[in-house]
Amino acid sequence: MNRRSCIAVLAVAMALAACGPTAEPAAPTPAPAASATVTGTATYRERIALPADAELIVQLVDVSLADAPSTVIAEQRIAPVRVPAAFTLTYDPAQIDQRHSYAVSAKVERAGTLLFTTDTRHPVLTQGGGSAVDIVMTRVRSR
Cβ of 15: how many Cβ atoms within 10 Å? Predict the structure, then answer.
């Protein structure tokens, strides 16, 4: 093949390649939802071991409305429980209204029976509350 025919074949090949279908641009991948955390520990004063099947339930709740049940924003369940128990509550910051009040509550249950719970409010996130809290629970006396 002479030089002229090689150039002609190359030009035709390039022209045909240019006429081919174009690749669709890749759809942008959605950004992962932003998340934030409230961290802390939960413990109790009594020097007793918890039953092996006890469970710690820690919740981030909206406690703004005094005459309505609180709304759970995030929850973590920990079993088996060893105190002090570290927790991390992951939540969507878009759910937080700076005009509202938020708190963290904790309780220990065994087979539906409440053993320990928080008896004071632990404010977080808004109105001067931070994103870390240490909770001391109170023993629930059975009758």
Answer: 9
Tally of residues, the chain: 143
Q: Are 55 and 108 in contact (CB under 8 A)?
A: yes
**pLDDT value of residue 96:** 94
3-state class of 64 per DSSP? coil
**Residue 119 structural domain:** 36-139
User: Is 129 a member of any domain?
Assistant: yes
For residue 143, give the H/E element and its range.
Answer: none
Rounded Cα distance, 68 and 96, in Å: 18
The CATH number of whichever domain residue 95 belongs to comes to 2.60.40.2990
> CA nearest 36: which of 80, 84, 74?
74
Q: What confidence tier does 20 reach under pLDDT thresholds 50, 70, 90?
A: low
- pTM equals 0.73
User: For 42-93, how does the pLDDT look when each residue is reduced to its tens digit (9 = 90+)?
Assistant: 999 999 989 999 999 999 999 998 888 889 999 999 999 999 999 999 999 9
Q: Which residues contact 5 (CB under 8 A, 6 or more apart)?
A: none
